[in-house]
Design a protein that fits this description.
The protein is α+β, with helices and mostly antiparallel strands. Helices cover 45% and strands 12% of the residues. The strands form four sheets. It has a five-stranded mixed β-sheet with strand order 2-1-3-12-4.
């Protein structure tokens, strides 16, 4: 009996680090998160928030610990798991908890609630004019309940209504429900609305009254105070250095770039024109490794997916190639979409490879896209200007402030490359970021081997695999 107890103790003690042990003895930094509005493109199914995941990963690196993310179902699930000691911190766009045992970090973001409704006025029996205030919406709307993970309605009391709140569910899914009129209204944070408004341009958002809510990390009860101290020091340091602003720009800097009419036009052409050229973009991905949706976004920015497009400067075709670039890449007919897409993808790949090794992704891609518009000579001129201004030439966040200077005589007069349309390149890249996010939401990644079944294992192979 004693031997059995010893075995059980050994098994349970080996299940992982206790989050309450001293930081110096911790080997793994465990983070709780959930599906949220800040999901990286393509990561929606994983429930990982790109911004929060990268932020906590950087903290783990600074602590010298292995980083592991645990995905919870909701805020309630996060708090329950945190109280059980299943993770060190929760990082999922959280506000400070009312539980005195769950401590908060210093804020790293501030967020307003947005009451989101459908602005098309097509909902039978509802008003056609868009209310201008949240109180006006409250007087004219009946809010449909949202069913939680356990089948019970979750509603947020708001101005006398029961409104589904994004903190309990994936914000984009909730806004999809408003777009399809499954809900009259939902509450989400302003960052979520910024991301969702170009996925669902029929939505309208009205800020709620009151001060912005602080966004913080939550710590499990009993964690080493040294961890809280180190986490707060980390957040304060990257805020002072500007690193936090650069990270925010990486994930949210392109929000609100497009007008509603532009977004609607893109969505319509995505449904009607893109399917015709999807195989060509996917073939270009196969040869260059660049996601076909990025290439499609670039092509839309260049030509609106018009293979016969021509500009006054002489660039032509789906990818708007110059004569020189087309000749170098073996294009016989720039108006042939297959040749144009292949060459445009190869050209973008060449530009990306030409950047110094010090430039990391995704800045590497964004700078290459700017060079696609400007030319590498002008981009390098902009990078030189950045060094004279003590700006980081490897950072898109810095370079998108510097590139417009290429149009100012006091800068371009000293450059061999001459005057450049740097502001135009910045607008192009930021638009492509929006188009790419939309395509990541609606279009599947290219999986060339999907649908091919693996060959059936021989009897001996099945036995080796443990199949009886």
């Amino acid at each position: 009996m004693r031997l059995i107890l010893l075995i059980l103790v050994a098994l349970f003690s080996g299940c992982g680090d206790d989050v309450r042990q001293p930081l110096g003895k911790t080997k793994e930094f465990v983070v709780l998160t959930r599906g949220s509005s800040t999901v990286s493109p393509g990561n929606e199914k994983k429930g990982l928030s790109g911004f929060d995941e990268e932020l906590t990963h950087r903290l783990a690196d600074e602590l010298g610990l292995k980083h592991r993310v645990v995905v919870a179902n909701s805020d309630d699930d996060i708090l329950s798991r945190l109280r059980k000691g299943e993770a060190h911190i929760a990082a999922a766009w959280q506000t400070p908890s009312d539980d005195p045992d769950i401590r908060s970090s210093v804020p790293y973001f501030y967020s307003h609630d947005i009451l989101v409704t459908n602005g098309t006025g097509q909902n039978p029996g509802k008003h056609s004019a868009a209310p201008r205030t949240a109180k006006a919406i409250a007087k004219t709307s009946s809010i449909a309940p949202r069913r939680g993970a356990q089948g019970t309605p979750y509603r947020e009391p708001f101005l006398g209504l029961s409104v589904p709140r994004g903190n309990q569910h994936n914000d984009l899914d909730l806004m999809h429900g408003v777009a399809t009129m499954d809900h009259d209204a939902v509450l989400v944070n302003d960052t979520a609305f910024g991301l969702g408004s170009y996925l669902y341009p029929e939505l309208q958002g009205v800020p709620t009254e009151g001060p912005p809510r602080p966004i913080v990390w939550l710590f499990a009860p009993g964690v080493d105070p040294e961890l809280i101290h180190r986490a707060n020091a980390f957040l304060e340091r990257i805020e002072r250095s500007g690193e936090l602003d650069r990270l925010k720009d990486r994930y949210f800097g392109h929000i609100d770039r497009l007008a509603q009419a532009e977004t609607l036009r893109f969505l319509e052409r995505m449904r009607t024109i893109l399917p015709r050229y999807r195989p060509l973009f996917q073939a270009a991905e196969a040869s260059t490794g660049i996601d076909w949706r990025i290439l499609a976004a670039l092509a839309y920015q260049e030509s609106q997916w018009n293979p016969l497009a021509t500009s006054p400067t002489g660039v032509r075709g789906m990818m708007m190639l110059t004569d020189e670039t087309a000749d170098r890449l073996g294009v016989r007919n720039r108006l042939d979409p297959e040749q144009s897409i292949r060459a445009g993808a190869e050209y973008l790949s060449d530009l990306r490879d030409a950047l110094p090794r010090s430039v990391s992704e995704p800045d590497r891609l964004w700078l290459a896209l700017a060079a696609y518009n400007l030319g590498m000579g002008h981009l390098n001129a902009g990078r030189y200007i950045a060094t004279t201004l003590q700006a980081d030439p490897d950072s898109w966040y810095e370079m998108k402030k510097v590139l417009p200077l290429l149009a100012q005589p006091r800068y371009y007069s000293r450059l061999k490359s001459g005057k450049g349309r740097g502001g135009e390149a910045v607008i192009m890249v930021e638009n492509i970021r929006v188009y790419t996010d939309i395509l990541y939401r609606y279009e599947k990644p290219y999986r060339p081997f999907d649908g091919f079944a693996a060959p059936e294992a021989k009897p001996a192979q099945r036995l080796e695999a443990g199949e009886g």
